[in-house]
Amino acid sequence: MTRSGREGSGRRLSAELYTGPFHVVLRAAIRQRGLTLERLRVHLARRGITVGLSSLSNWQTGHTRPDTPGSLRAIRALEEILGLPPGSLVRLLPDADPGTRPGQERRGGVADIAPVAELLDAVPGAQDRDVELVSVQHKIAVDAQRRTTSMWSRTVVRALRDGVDRYLVRYYGNPGCVPSLVRPRPLGNCSLARFVPHPSAPALVYELAFGHELRAGETWVFECELVDPTAGVSREFAYGFRYPAEQYVLEVAFDPHARPSACYSFAQRDLSDERHPTGTLTLSTHNTVHLIASVVSSGVLGIRWEWP
Questions:
Q1: How many domains is the chain built from?
Q2: In sequence order, which residues have a C-beta less than 8 Å from that of residue 36 and are 6 or more positions away?
Q3: In this structure, are 181 and 287 located in the same domain?
Q4: Is 188 buried (19+), middle (13-18) or exposed (0-12) by CB count in 10 A?
Q5: Residue 267 lies in a domain
């Protein structure tokens, strides 16, 4: 692998560490270290841990997950062997002891998402999981005054039950955002059904109706633009994954008169976790930067930029 290839692989793995799923992170870490499963088995054996090749293979393909005390001990050893942060693999296992998962404690930013939670509680069915995300694309436009005033999205969902006919979107704006003035504009295969701005915080939720009831397993593609005339100077955009997504694409396009001095991607384990930079992004000749992620199970991904 070339040096640039190794650096690209490292950036992708850095993001995957905070979004999962477990088998994707394990497979990527093994590939990055250039170890065979037999060599991993030998390294584990030197630590007094016996794991069969079939188990290691099943763990990295997702066919099975380690769920016994002995296998969890092996996973903690693999974190050390593969050069991963302590707890980074264990925390991706849903049945692991929460006390072993870093980043779960409440931090200062958690209060910022409370208004969105309040709005979700007020919308019937908002907490139901009735779709899975096949693809989410966001294109963020930053104008000459350094404001994020337009956010275009294209979403592909797959229904998990019969009768799904809408999708709920959450939005948390800049501190100066006036939610009642934000305008969702359906662009394709959907219409605006419900719009619920928060009375005192820069948060809102809105429903996009498909005009069609999906059967379980059926997919739907829809587009929408969110326009925020009250947006102040912007320095980042982030997306929190309420549902697992097979692919996520985020692009930020800057006005030629408002070129940032630096851009980088970041990830968080959840909305209350501290931010973890995952790579430096180079502005293209078209004044854009982007990130792409595959098989994201949870967490937050975003792009932040600095102004000269």
A1: 2
A2: none
A3: yes
A4: exposed
A5: yes
* 147-203 pLDDT per residue, tens: 998 999 999 999 999 999 999 999 988 877 899 999 999 999 999 999 999 888 888
Query: What whole-number distance in Å separates Cα of residue 296 and Cα of residue 95?
Result: 18
25 — phi, psi (to 5°)? -65, -45
- End-of-domain residue from the set 67, 100, 133: 100
C-alpha distance from residue 52 to each of 21, 40, 96, 117, 230 (Å): 22, 10, 21, 44, 58
Q: What is the domain extent for residue 55?
A: 3-100
Task: Give yes or no for residue 95 having a pLDDT over 80.
Answer: no
- Give one DSSP letter per residue of 274-294, joined into a string: PPEEEEEEPPPTTSEEEEEEE
Domain boundary among 74, 100, 126: 100
Do 91 and 120 lie in a common domain? no
User: Which residues lie closer than 8 Å to 161 by C-beta, 6 or more apart?
Assistant: 130, 216
Secondary structure of 38-52 in HEC code, one letter for each residue:
HHHHHHHHHCCCCCC
The CA-based diameter of the chain, rounded to the nearest angstrom, is 63
Sign of the torsion formed by the C-alpha atoms of 27, 33, 39 and 41: negative
